[in-house]
């Protein structure tokens, strides 16, 4: 949802990059070996964990084969067994499991925003062939009702499926809160694919009329620019010209501050953008502008707009979008130019970018909070904000007398893209077709995944509470404590490069308190019901339900700004907040964790993953601070190559520092987990 530069990292490829010393084939094989090695460590810790469980439960006076602990036959254990049996052979078709290593891994929409297209037609044909083979193989795997093959899920998928199970669980009468009933009703209406088909574009056209119309059709009320912008931002979570979200300032971490700020960033553009590292300028990728223009015409046709006006309005829409994109910049450039987290008061921002009524727009977005001119906001690309303001002022002057209203059209198109998930399939397919035409090779996600994500967006507090109640009550705190204690012991035994690094890191580790997220733990059913009291859902009208979800999203932003507390949502990795390490409840879902699992299985799976996450979080540069990553990783890697050596393989490549660190992290995480399992 947000382009948070502290969270999203954009992968940028430029034509000026130097060629790699190793052949492409070797590099791909090298990366594949690394990920297979990581998976092997994960499989090993599972096996050793189960073996440890059997050893500890055997009677001391009987041989192991005569006395084995009774098998775990709980539903969770049986399901985990099915996952393991279906998934523990990644080596037969490694590219099905390690897509990135094989060069076919897809990037997210935000990752593609500043990529340079240097893929030939032959490359595209090869990617299509690999994708077709992969999809054909997946159809041969036993499927399930989710539309995904039965295999060991990644953590994000496991969490999504857990939320789906909560939302699909049968109603329990009076024991179920009204808030949970509303979340389930929203999910149910979202899963009803037929309802939007019956009404077509009528819901959007009705909403458009309520907003005063738009220039491409008769009856536009010439609504005020800033009034419309504030309305879209506040009621529909739509940010056409700039993005707005809430977050902390990393510069305040040293002061243990938990304050959150309004953050202003460049928006998400609907088309790929090229970055020229020589001129340090962005521009829309001309290869895809025709497809972008065509998709605009298709949207207008679906909305019943006469074809006679399509050329003019789509031309202006594309021209304005590409003009705005000129001042956008990839993350690495903004980092190098110190364009992130620049502090301004709202009054200062008004002086720098006067085309936007910043106070009115931010007041509307964060109502009912008191927003004033003296409030600080964090800006992440001031040159873009200034360019955006100048562009808006220029286009207002040029087109005011003509009545073409391109700025208003641009805002309505932004609203349309926000609401496409609630419209009939023709709109989604138009968006999907352009996405594929612009180089997106990702497969379409199942409808249930989109509906889970939408439900979580509106009912995040409720769902975090439900996950904790159902999955993270028993044994979670103990696992966190044991893993962190084992991790402390592991780091104490490292060979540090100097005493200063050792003292700083060990003191940091000891000062932090790992804990399970508790922000929603103490909420009663009555408090949850009050939180969602104004939500009234219609089983026959998903479009209106979706609009209410957007309002809930706005309220969530306001709560975060007001209280500085954020629910875990779909988080699956730890984070640091002041002196605490927050472990999200989303980590404690099956098949990685369950209260009915044997201890060794919980610690072998989630324990090792948690240890790895903590090492990445706390020691991102450990290879520069201690000798162990280099020495131990080279030893492990050499041994791994020796036991997996193939006759035709040439082992001439060496490990980079980052690869050495990753191998050491994986290996150390296994050690930490086994130490307490």
Automatic annotation (TrEMBL):
<dbReference type="GO" id="GO:0016485">
    <property type="term" value="P:protein processing"/>
</dbReference>
<keyword id="KW-1133">Transmembrane helix</keyword>
<feature type="domain" description="Peptidase M13 N-terminal">
    <location>
        <begin position="155"/>
        <end position="514"/>
    </location>
</feature>
<keyword id="KW-0472">Membrane</keyword>
<dbReference type="GO" id="GO:0004222">
    <property type="term" value="F:metalloendopeptidase activity"/>
</dbReference>
<dbReference type="InterPro" id="IPR042089">
    <property type="entry name" value="Peptidase_M13_dom_2"/>
</dbReference>
<dbReference type="InterPro" id="IPR000718">
    <property type="entry name" value="Peptidase_M13"/>
</dbReference>
<dbReference type="InterPro" id="IPR008753">
    <property type="entry name" value="Peptidase_M13_N"/>
</dbReference>
<keyword id="KW-0645">Protease</keyword>
<dbReference type="Pfam" id="PF01431">
    <property type="entry name" value="Peptidase_M13"/>
</dbReference>
<feature type="compositionally biased region" description="Polar residues">
    <location>
        <begin position="11"/>
        <end position="22"/>
    </location>
</feature>
<dbReference type="GO" id="GO:0005886">
    <property type="term" value="C:plasma membrane"/>
</dbReference>
<protein>
    <submittedName>
        <fullName>Kell metallo-endopeptidase (Kell blood group)</fullName>
    </submittedName>
</protein>
<keyword id="KW-0482">Metalloprotease</keyword>
<feature type="region of interest" description="Disordered">
    <location>
        <begin position="1"/>
        <end position="22"/>
    </location>
</feature>
<dbReference type="GO" id="GO:0046872">
    <property type="term" value="F:metal ion binding"/>
</dbReference>
<dbReference type="Pfam" id="PF05649">
    <property type="entry name" value="Peptidase_M13_N"/>
</dbReference>
<feature type="transmembrane region" description="Helical">
    <location>
        <begin position="32"/>
        <end position="54"/>
    </location>
</feature>
<keyword id="KW-0812">Transmembrane</keyword>
<dbReference type="InterPro" id="IPR018497">
    <property type="entry name" value="Peptidase_M13_C"/>
</dbReference>
<keyword id="KW-0862">Zinc</keyword>
<keyword id="KW-0378">Hydrolase</keyword>
<feature type="domain" description="Peptidase M13 C-terminal">
    <location>
        <begin position="577"/>
        <end position="618"/>
    </location>
</feature>
<keyword id="KW-0479">Metal-binding</keyword>
